Structures are given as structure tokens and as C-alpha cells.
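Inputs:
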Amino acid sequence: AQTVTQSQPEMSVQEAETVTLSCTYDTSESDYYLFWYKQPPSRQMILVIRQEAYKQQNATENRFSVNFQKAAKSFSLKISDSQLGDAAMYFCAYRSSRSGGGADGLTFGKGTHLIIQP
Amino acid sequence: DAGVIQSPRHEVTEMGQEVTLRCKPISGHDYLFWYRQTMMRGLELLIYFNNNVPIDDSGMPEDRFSAKMPNASFSTLKIQPSEPRDSAVYFCASSFGARTGKAPEDTQYFGPGTRLTVL
């Protein structure tokens, strides 16, 4: 079974600065998908960014980018120019590229609570 | 387009009562998932459907939990009888299937969740 580990329960950053959230995962598969979700106090799960494992290029969405290191099984999220609205819980998630037999569900890390200091 | 819709947003009930949570997935999505979020266990998959058929229910904690998807636009998660340890946030999510050619594949979109409190 796959596991996802987020080793930073909480991170704090000054507004306008850059912060990196860590995520590692364990899998024996070669093809899969990785995601970062944001959960603000409203508890809505919001997709931040998506990475396909067979693509070597790191995904980018505006101020959000990832550093995907497949050999190291690492998938960190970088937030540039942090804004107050970025304050939330951030979850790293894994999904197999296989279908059926439970493979389609997401496996989540425990989350990182991001605090933005004004 | 409307996202995933869940109802109710909040539910408070007493131990032993039946609870029914409802979900309407995004139109056209092939998959529907039910997750539960607690402080102790984090986010965990309970059950999911592909084209209205249950594929994997190994995450359903006990026989007190059941889920149905009678059509492509509606699913329910039922707890009978409810217990205080069932208190959690329950999320419904939907997605296109893998390798269907429909973008973005495999990306799950979540509803706002139902906060369940069992007294």
C-alpha cells in the first residue's frame, strides 16, 4: 500500500515571502498522480496543483510550483509571494494510475498547517 | 458549472439515530468517492463508485455504514445506528476516470463536506 508523509505539522512564513512544504511518498508503482490540496477554515478541499509522474517537468500554477523528484519519491510545494489568503491546511495526496480494486482513491498525508504572518 | 454538492452541511444527531448524507457529483464524472476526515485518522477513503457501481468498500468501518448510488447524479451514505465515534467531516468527491481521454484525468473535486456530530 502507498503511504504519504508530510513531516512538517506546521509552517510559518512572512507575507510576500516564499515557503516550501515537504511531502514524501512510498510506492512500488512507476506511474501515478500526485496532488496538493488546500483546506482553509471553511474546510472546503481545493485543488492547488497536479503532477503526473511520467512527466519530468515540474507543474506550475501561478504562485504555486512543485519540485518533483521521482527517484527520491519527493513532491514539495513552493508558494511564492505568500498572501494572507494562503493560510490553510495543505494536504499532499497520491493516486495510482491503475484502475479498480481500490486503486482509484486518494491516499493523503496528515497535512501541514501554514500560517502567514502579516 | 456547479461543483460537487453535499447536503446537509451540518448534522447533529443522537446516538442510535439513522443519518443519511447526500451527494450530487459533477455532471459527466465517472467516479464518485466518499471520504471521512477526523483529527485522529486524517482523510480516509470509505467507498467509491465507477459508473454507479461500487468498486471498493474496504474503507467502510462497519456494517453500520452503507452507501448507494442509484443513478449518475446522486449518492447517499447512511449510518444506522450512529455512534459518537462517527462524528467527523464526510466529503464526497468526483472525477473522470483514468485513461478516458477526458481532462483532467484522475483529478478529484471535493464537495464542501458534511460535519456530523453524534451526541
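Chain B has no helices and eleven strands. Flag for discussion at group meeting.
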